[in-house]
Task: structure prediction
Amino acid sequence: MTSSENFVHPYIPNSVPSVRQAMLEEIGAASIEDFYADIPAGIRLHRPLDLPAPLRSEAELTRHMEELLARNTSTRQVLSFLGSGCYQHHVPAVVDEVVNRSEFLTAYAGEPYEDHGRFQALWEYQSMMAELLDVEVVNVPVYDGFQAAGTALRMAGRVTGRRRVLVATAIDADKLSRIRDYVRPDHDVTVVPVDPETGSADLDALHQELAAGDTAAVYADAPSALGIVDSSLPRLAELAHGAGALYVVGCNPLTLGVLAPPSAYGADIACGDIQPLGIHQSFGGGNAGFIATRDEERLVAEYPSRLFGLAPTSVEGEYGFGDVAHERTSFALREEGKEWVGTAAALHGIGAGVYLALMGPRGMREIGDTILAHTAYARQCLAQVPGIEVPYGDALHFADFTVRYTGGRTAAEIRADLKERGIYGSVPTGEHEAAFCVTEVHSKADIDRLAAALEEIVK
Amino acid sequence: MTAHHAPAPVSPEDARIAPKPRLRRFQQASWDEKLIFELGSPGERGVLVPAPDPSIAPVEIPPTLRRAAPPALPEMSQQQVLRHYLRLSQENLGADLNIDVGQGTCTMKYSPKVNDQFVRDPRIAALHPLQDEDTVQGVLGIIHSLELLLKEISGMDRVSLQPAAGSAAIYTNVAMIRAYFAARGELEQRDEVITTIFSHPSNAACAKTAGFKVITLHPDADGYPDIEALKAAVGPRTAALLITNPEDTGIYNPRIEEFVRIVHEAGGLCSYDQANANGILGITRAREAGFDLCHFNLHKTFSTPHACGGPAAGACAVREELAPYLPRPTVEFDGERYRLDDDRPESIGKMRPFYGVVPNLVRAYAWIMSLGAEGLRSAAETAVLNNNYLLHKVRQIPGVSVPYAQGRPRVEQVRYSWQKLHEDTGLHSEDIGLRAADFGTHYWTSHHPYLVPEPMTLEPTESYTRDDLDEYAAILAEIAREAYESPDTVRTAPHRSTIHRVRPETLDDPATWAVSWRAYRRKILGGAAR
Amino acid sequence: MVNPVAGLGGRVGLGGTDGQERRHRALALGARPLAGERAAAALRELRELRAGPGAGAGAGALGGAVAGPGGGRPGAEPEVVTAAGAMGADSVAAAGLTARVVYAPGAEDETSAEDTLAAVRAVVAEGVDLLLLAGGDGTARDVLTALGGAHCPVLGVPTGVKMHSAVFGVSPRAAGEVAAAWLARSGSVRLRDAEVMDRDEDELRAGRVASRLYGWLPVPDVPVRVQQRKTGSTAGAPEAVGGIAAEVAERVGDGLLALGPGSTTRAVAAALGADVSLTGVDVLALRPGRPAEVVLRDAGEDALLAAGPCWIALSPIGGQGFLLGRGNQQISPRVLRAAGGRERLLVVCTEQKLASLGGRPLLLDTGDEALDAELAGHLPVITGRRRTSLYRLTT
Result:
């Protein structure tokens, strides 16, 4: 029984009845049902799926989707101060032009011959990230920064053969949840609370935790969940290494035009999210993760993800690409549970590469300086609003920062009032605490407008 | 310009164009494009950045945190960057351009262009995930509706669209299985997960990553999962069966219900890897086969583009008993308004920073809505028709065999073997695949280890015309003919691709592998380029 | 190094061609010698690959064989030394190569095992990089005898009827391909120790068909390097020996482990920190967190029984799947029962090696039918850390 007898759809060329019939005749089959002979009647669905009537034409579909999109108000239509892991930066037009090329958008798992372009673009992404991070090895992107952190910590665990992971800086609760879940079979995660006054790592407490031994890795975020780039980041490296642990640092790559890369202050593994590098927010759908290390065999051996390498071809002087350390896991002495490689986020790597090539060293320095200056200015402005305290004094902040409301109103109420004024911001981080974020897309006038609005609301 | 002579009259014969050859004289672009680090000049800019208002003071960075030297990124003008990447794109074979039936198990179907337009709209692309729910009712509605659609398509009770891809979805299902047994106090006891060697390797890898021991079943002589092996494997330690059906051989396991029953009787859960769901949409579902959980790859079955290997999107669907463990937040609807529910104490937590790969959820939603129930069924039936048509064509090619389940139809794909051709000519399946690049297409062999020797896995999907399938089979037949008549042509392929055969030795040697430009300069150029 | 009569028996239903009488009968029945043709096919493949694009630099001296000092240029023809006529030179010529003949048999049409032994010794004395042997199990055994422990990489061109030995390429051309890769010394080629198996004549006389393990020969191991990677593929195709060792160590804990012969078990021992022989059964003492210690080397049945309760780790013979009763007879029914039977038996094998059995079951033949019946069925094969494959074991 063929239920879709007379349903010819633009996406399904051979749904034309005469074509189907001719094909069946050529195969020598009576009907399409013949091909389902191995599916027993007992587990068949003996009715049509109960789905909405199809929007058959492109025009009807577009109209339906427009109705849905109209129920969203984007950050282009209002003034947004939202960050906390997804950032509003300018996406250069050339980035979109490249990632929307159908040769890239619709390709998948071709060889380094017919897909030479993909391999070169991703190798160049790895290379530009390596320059930014001052290392020699960066992977093809993984799902997101959470996954990158989880994998980086498991790598550290496999290298050291130890169990404990210590988190030394303020960490996003969702990120912590993801890391905990991911490393659970092999590792316990201990968060060493930061100094509530400075928002920075509590070195004495960390020292005590390290003294208990069995530490695989000390983990820090730069900037941390509070937006702080901790001045003791280099000191954490000394403590970790003194205890025989690896130092793993999650960083925002957009800071690295002006801030020292983690490798410069002793990180063995750097990881993070490349969404800030020219990838749209897309309601949180634009994340992708990176992992970076020195070119040491013991570290390279532990990457579960793909690493593209440049190699000569059979033609003198011609280069191509391939997977590095193909039998990578055979170097590993410790087989305590490798992870997996799957379809992840390659196209975001290509896009981030285009972004870095457009920005160049000067663009990266300027955007870093601009965001640092805007963040400092926004913290100053908001600190002057009666009923707002801006904690953590003069700690260096990048993009994200937190405020405390002392006037009795909750962060959620203030967020709602801001929204009424066409401003997105004040993501609650506690009942009377909230996060804001500024980037290069904001102007001084935008920040002044936020401060003025808060002045009316906070009280 | 004035003509002094009237041109001689042209007969219709003179103006006739020669018919196209049976096989294309394909030639892939080869731009000899330099590496990006060899382009540009110091001082060039590709894009400018806003400077802070002059009244805003610059920030002093503590010396230990300040970058010492600027990153050695390329310095290029805008069009130069664009041209470089457009040339690279031309050196890449996308599914839109080729008859992409050769990436078996990947379900390369047409990704409708109109769906791409929706996700480029700022009302998707410029949405922040922490906006107030009132301002994102449209996108929450799309996510929720897609969950309902997949609920019906799977027959399950609840769906989560958070996983980033297929493997992430498998991992999410395993994490839920772990949470389920932990809640029942059985996790200590139930530490084994069973899968089959032909199921996608991520089933074993994710289970192992989640801390389970993995037991793999090998097929019986006909290529079906071995039910006797399953009976020997189950017991009080069994947490779950993770199984693909049909497997990448294209064979549907007709005893799947029995497999599920055996595992259930032992107290385990059954999770259905539906990466190969395309041929059975609307025909049979996870629910009817008795499964407790399943997952879909939206980039396969529901048409979102593969993007060189992601971003993709995954969906998990579970029975009610497992719903408490779904990733948080879930999207809820009270008949008026959509909201995010983060208050789910038993949840396995977040699988991703936010709510999933939203652009691909939008695309998948639009694709299902444009087809409806009848269209999905047509897609499945046509994909299976196309597959069996291609099987009919390919099995006639000298040197090809179709191992296992002789005389049985295949569902969505087929794993062929070039073993005979290899024995006759010494050429490998990889050689044939590389020669295919010279005809503007390609194919994938198989996951490892190769149980089918010299494998080739083809999956035509519903997107291709009969002519496309004829052409693809003709290409394979031509390469097989070459293999027997001039094997060197095949052995040294590709010839008309962007580059020639890569010599892989350097990629396996720590002294010479080069994962980045700076590693290449240090190891290969020996500082010559500095 | 061609055994001209290898494979003669196949087409006329005589089994192998060991022994003069059977050979005469085969020829009388109209059998045609194929060994020379097959050897030539392998050599042609080798020559084409050496001449073709991408042929690596490196010398080759083929003994019987290939290769030698000299070469070094990409595309250089391998230097070949061989025995006269049908014992090699004919095949070399048919493949369009030239060879130096270093041995001539007494009678061209009546070569014997003695000729094989003498030819192998003459060829190996030339210092070859690789000894190509064209023949079957019997020929492989002769080479083993001739080498007498001397180290020389060997590769079999399959021409015989019964090839239970793991020294042969899957086809003549595949053997040529492996030889070319080995001579080019491309980075990824290593040597593996491969089993030499042959029919057990004693058993045959008693009316039972059984094969026996005679020893190991070093064979080039060319992993197929596949670029393609897609969703779900793990990184690379790991030789999971490290993982297997970790799994074995955990299961044994603090205790004794008897290791059967073979390359997988030896690699497991190495990963545990002990160096054991390839051919014998050794007993290790395992202690968590410490390197394993060898407490018994080359143990026989009595020594194993005296050692006290121990775990037993075995690996199937590559390509044909024998697990018990071939080459590890020391692990006798008595030893197996004393150890505790199935519960204490650890079967170790990489997934790649299991896949290479092509779906054939693992085999056992302990000589004790009751025990065989007890052990048969689906049994877990340790393929890595916390990974097992359930695989069928039959008599």
